[in-house]
Here is the input.
Amino acid sequence: MRRLVAETRLHAASFVLPLFVTSGEAIERPIASMPGHAQLSIDRLVPVVREAADAGVGGVILFGIPDTKDEQGSSAWDPQGPVPRAIEAIKSADIDLTVWADVCMCEYTSHGHCGVVRGTTVDNDATLPLLARTAVSYAAAGADVIAPSDMMDGRVAAVRSALDSAQFDELPICAYSAKYASAYYGPFRDAAGSTPAFGDRRTHQMDPANGREALREATIDLAEGADMVMVKPAGPYLDIVRQVRDRVDVPVAAYQVSGEYSMIEAGAANDWIDGDQVMLESLTSIARAGADIILTYYAIRAATLLG
Ligand code: PBG
Ligand code: ZN
Here is the structure.
């Protein structure tokens, strides 16, 4: 009876699995704060992507761990970098799911900021052409969705026009519209090696205290040409997911971030909570709040449990 009358149903097809890709071969470097996840070289990544597709997962989103970092983050747009090469490998393996490319500079800059640094702050406008160039490089490699996560003002317009002029006018953009300056990103920054060397991201990521601003950010991103919008983190911001869902008419994605995952894992490892049950409850809550797409490190496990 409960199954018959359930108002919310989870579907593997709406999950997107974040993965960390590094250069080299046969590399599987476990991420201590994210049990079950590792930095993977392409030969190890492709089988995981296949496993996700076989479980019915709708997509993967790739984060690159480059060999070299510099002030500008120039490895981000290197066509031989980890992300473009991984996209090509997944596409030539003919795996049937969407491949999302996260676009940001912080994994590639020596200082770990999401853009070009001038003095002690991130230079918003100087960062835009670098993001645009990076997006085009991922598009050329065959990405299905471009997902800018940097939170610079005007980046959706910059990415859209660069993609259009490079003949990728049909490629969708999922904007991380409401990305909060969150302590829940801690484990990710270990995983991606993207902790800022000084300062923080509060000049561009949102204040957790603000809700209306999220709606404004989503509206601006849509006006600039976004095809989908994202709220991040997900669990602590379910009110924002709901408000954005009610306001826009494009797909809404929500990102269950690394800290949300790691807290559930830590509780489960101590037998303080039932990990699988809490996982499904957290994902159900995100769906109930209105997310159409859920980015989650649990994508394969949840898809498998859902059968
Ligand atoms: C990069 C980026 C971050 C995450 C996704 N893209 C981290 C940050 O802004 O510091 C976080 C993802 C997670 O915690 O799982 N801009
Ligand atoms: Zn960043």
Notes: The domain at 7-306 is CATH 3.20.20.70 (TIM Barrel). The chain has one domain: 7-306. The pocket of zinc ion (ligand 2) is lined by residues 104, 106, 114, 149-150 (CB under 6 Å).
